[in-house]
Amino acid sequence: MYPYYYAFDPTYILIIIGVVLTLLASAVVNTTFRKYSRVRSLSGMTGAQAAQKILNSAGIYDVSIQHISGNLTDHYDPRGKVLRLSDAVYDVTSVAAIGVAAHECGHAIQHQNSYIPLRLRTAIFPIANFGSKIAWPLIVAGIILSMSQTLIYAGILLFSFAVLFQIVTLPVEFNASRRAVKILDESGILYGDEVNITKKVLGAAALTYVAGAAAAILQLLRLLILFGGRDRDR
C-alpha cells in the first residue's frame, strides 16, 4: 500500500500550487473587471447592443442574444446558437462589459468559420465532461478494492480527457479575445484608450483559463506520481 495514505503526502504541494494559481487568477479578473466597469464607453452602447452590432457586421443573423443571471457567467452556446450575457454585461454601458460581450461574439464567429480548435473542443466536451465526473469515483473505488489498477488507470485516463479539454480551451479563448479587440477597434464601437482597456480586461480573463489548465495538469501529474509506477514497485 502507498505510505501517502497514512502520512503527509508530498504531492499535495501540486494541489496547493494549482489552488493558489486559480485563486490569484480569479482575484485579478474580478479586480480588473470591477475597475473598468466604472468606465462608461463613449459610444454609450450596452453589452447586448454591441454584441448585436458585431454579429450583424460579421453576417451572423441566426444567433440570439439572451440575458442570464450571475456575474461574468457570459458564454456562447454553439448547439443552440445563443449568446448569453450576464447581469454585469447585458444592459451595462461600460468598456469592460462591451469587451466581454465582444469576446463571446468572437466564439460565435469561430463557430461560423468552423474554427478547428473550437470544433476539437466541442468534440472532446462530452467525454471530458463525463471523465471529470466519473474519474475520481473510479480512482477511489480502485483504492478501496485493494488498489485495483484497472479502475485506477481507467479513472486517470478519463481525467486526462478533462485535462485535454482545458488545454484545447486555451487557443479558443485567446483567439476569441484577439478577434474581439480587432473588431472593436475597426468597427468604432470603442475608441482610443478604450481598446487598450479592453485588452487589459480580456487579458485578465485569459489568466483564469491558463490557471485552470495549469491546475488540471498538476492534478494529473500528481495522479501519475502516485499510481503510475505501482506495477514497477511490486
Automatic annotation (TrEMBL):
<feature type="transmembrane region" description="Helical">
    <location>
        <begin position="123"/>
        <end position="145"/>
    </location>
</feature>
<feature type="transmembrane region" description="Helical">
    <location>
        <begin position="206"/>
        <end position="227"/>
    </location>
</feature>
<dbReference type="InterPro" id="IPR007395">
    <property type="entry name" value="Zn_peptidase_2"/>
</dbReference>
<keyword id="KW-0472">Membrane</keyword>
<feature type="transmembrane region" description="Helical">
    <location>
        <begin position="12"/>
        <end position="33"/>
    </location>
</feature>
<keyword id="KW-1133">Transmembrane helix</keyword>
<keyword id="KW-0812">Transmembrane</keyword>
<dbReference type="Pfam" id="PF04298">
    <property type="entry name" value="Zn_peptidase_2"/>
</dbReference>
<feature type="transmembrane region" description="Helical">
    <location>
        <begin position="151"/>
        <end position="172"/>
    </location>
</feature>
<protein>
    <recommendedName>
        <fullName>Neutral zinc metallopeptidase</fullName>
    </recommendedName>
</protein>
